[in-house]
Amino acid sequence: MSRFDLIIFDCDGVLVDSEILAAQVESKLLTEAGYPITAGEIGERFSGMTWRDILLAVENEAEIPLQSTLIEQHHTILESRLKRELQPIAGVREAVAQLSEPRCICSNSTEERIKMMLTKVGLIDVFEPKIFSAESLGPDRAKPKPDVFLHGAEKMGPGRKTLWLSRIRSTASPVPRRPACGL
């Protein structure tokens, strides 16, 4: 018998190597906008944050206005790079294949992007249709808030007594521990 009733995976950086590609795009756009930063620094300082939230944090910290066109530029450039360069995390298919527990994905990426990435790396059959995006829940419900995890757990079957998150990032505002978020 399994220790877990459900396993919830993040997608970016857990199943696919999209985080480094996103950090490279973000560092390039911010540097060009007058805020020099490396991809490594993006990963250290803003891991788990949406691009919108990164822009807001940079504007507040540096007191420089950033153009709203950066949001669309980011989307266009990142989509292109993901379609060309995305790879699965090494060994992930084999690891997931060994699991017998129900599983799903809860991510800040859009459902469309998650499906594109999983299809590109050959993992769509392992998770579809159990894919949940924080974006579909409405504004300001992205991780590190627990909303997408709670939504995914509820959709996978209410009353789960135990579950495991494949990764909780250590960010400035981490996902609350079980008592705070109800998991």
- Helical content class: 40-55%
Low-confidence stretches: 168-180
What general form does the structure show?
Answer: globular
Q: What can be said about the biggest beta sheet?
A: 4 strands, parallel
* Radius of gyration over all CA atoms, rounded: 17 Å
Mean pLDDT: 87
- Which percent range describes the beta-strand content? 5-15%
Can you count the helices? 9
The CATH class designation of the largest domain is Alpha Beta
Spatially, the strands of the biggest sheet line up as 3-2-1-4
CATH topology of the largest domain: Rossmann fold
CATH architecture of the largest domain: 3-Layer(aba) Sandwich
Count of DSSP strands? 4
Please write the string of helix (H) and strand (E) elements: EHHHHHEHHEHEH
Q: What number of structural domains do the residues give?
A: 2
Overall structural class, as computed from helix and strand content, comes to: alpha/beta
CATH superfamily of the largest domain: HAD superfamily/HAD-like
Q: Termini, distance in Å?
A: 20 Å
